[in-house]
Write a structure and sequence with these properties.
By secondary structure, the chain is α/β, with parallel strands linked by helices. About 20% of the residues lie in helices and about 30% in strands. The structure holds adenosine monophosphate and magnesium ion (MG).
Length: about 400
């Protein structure tokens, strides 16, 4: 049986990098850039005013203050944003200028309106200016040829703004895979149905959908399928024709009605591994099918979620070109003793607490793979290594948070 590390390596070795595609700028939010974004322009492309005020030459208003203001004659022409000045500003003159408007040729600062007073056809300036004051210089944000955003970066709202300012209406991104979800089991009920003896509501397809949603991946839900070979095979074929990755929950163990693996091999999927030396999630099966992948996830609600975190999520992250394959992990100390069976990796649901710059973890309670509420209480999964045995209070362990 494979160890957790071996199984994770097998999954990540298999990763294909999905094609890069051009998408309209706004559709690229949260996706991963597949090319460097290089600027074709200086941004801003002209020296312009950062304030509403007057374009001046600093030497003319040297020493100006409230007691000794400097008088400058107002030019009749003003420069609203979007207009280019047509006349020169000669000595003794100044030109009204608005935020974002181009600086006239021989001016080297803008006096804020608030530091002046209008007096007939002229203004009184109450404050001197340093050269360049209130001027936004050409290229001060971005220079032509700058690599503004790098390939492999996730696209956030500010990046969309930056790309828009560079004049690109489309972006090359790694197209995220489409993931299908099938729940198998004769005992499964839709979640709006009343419980009865022998039945459980299909929570797995919901936790999986949510886990995919959390990382911004599109999913198709194929609903509940009975443990009947023909029906199950048909649904699997349908899903595989539409999805890059298929998640099937249940039916991968050694029960008399666990047909999933057999069906998948029967339709030509290549078995990469079955069973991992871990708890929960031992019967996990992973297969390759054409250009895509199939995970047969053990049906217990906690196993499904843990296997998603440890195997499915990293594969998807790798495919979309995101460098953060796993959730961030911390080294944390056990807050109490834990009974722990040696000989397999145990994933334990824990609560994390930070005390004096150190993290501590406590159990969330019962750790059975059907106890989903202890997953809901958890803010981390502690990884007890195969060779660990009982975990003593204060032992240091890796916890994925
Ligand atoms: P299986 O892997 O099919 O043997 O299922 C293992 C356990 O998980 C059984 O107790 C199932 O009832 C339960 N189970 C399977 N699928 C689901 C599901 N979609 N939602 C909730 N529990 C499930
Ligand atoms: Mg089942």
């Amino acid at each position: 049986m494979l160890s957790v590390k071996e199984a994770q390596n097998k999954v990540l070795e298999c990763s294909i990098r999905i094609k890069a595609v051009k998408v309209p700028l706004l559709d690229s939010l949260d996706l991963i850039l597949a090319e460097d974004v290089i600027s074709k322009d200086d941004i801003p492309v002209y020296n312009n005013s950062a304030m509403d005020g007057y374009a001046v030459r600093t030497e003319e208003i040297k020493g100006a203050n409230r007691s000794y203001p400097v008088r400058l004659i107002l030019l009749a022409e003003d420069i609203p944003a979007g207009k280019v000045p047509t006349v020169k500003v000669n000595p003794g003159y100044c030109m009204p200028i608005m935020t974002g408007a181009p600086i006239p040729e021989n001016c080297n600062a803008v006096v804020m309106k608030e530091d002046t007073e209008k007096d007939g056809e002229s203004i009184l300036v109450f404050k001197e200016c340093a050269e360049g004051e209130n001027i936004r210089y050409r290229g001060e944000d971005i220079k032509k040829g700058d690599k503004v955003l790098r390939k492999g970066k996730k696209i956030f709202p500010a990046d969309i703004g930056v790309i828009a300012s560079l004049g690109e209406s489309e972006v090359l991104v790694y197209h995220p895979p489409v993931v299908g979800i099938i729940s198998t089991g004769d005992e499964l009920l839709e979640i709006d149905k009343e419980l009865e003896i022998g039945k459980v509501r299909d929570s797995n397809s919901y936790s999986l959908s949510a886990q995919l949603k959390e990382i911004g991946i599109k999913y198709i839900r194929y609903g509940i399928v009975k443990d009947e070979k023909k029906i199950l095979e048909e649904k699997i074929r349908e899903a595989l024709s539409e999805c890059d990755i298929l998640l099937i929950s249940g039916g991968v163990s050694v029960g008399d009605y666990d047909f999933v693996k057999e069906i998948l091999i029967g339709i030509g999927a290549e078995l990469i591994f079955w069973r991992v030396n871990q708890k929960p999630g031992k019967p996990l099966v992973f297969l390759k099918y054409k250009d895509g992948f199939i995970f047969g996830l053990p049906g217990n609600p906690v196993s499904v979620m843990v296997c998603f975190e440890m195997y499915v999520r990293p594969l998807i992250k790798k495919i979309i070109g995101d460098d953060n394959l796993f959730r961030p992990s911390v080294r944390a100390r056990a807050y109490h003793d834990f009974k722990n069976k040696r000989g397999r990796t145990n994933f334990v649901r824990v609560m994390l607490e930070k005390k004096d710059n150190e993290y501590f973890f406590k159990s969330t309670g019962m750790q059975g793979s059907g106890i989903l509420t202890s997953m809901a209480k958890a803010d981390g999964i502690a990884v007890f290594p195969e060779d660990a045995g009982d975990i003593k209070k204060d032992s240091e362990i890796e916890v994925f948070a």
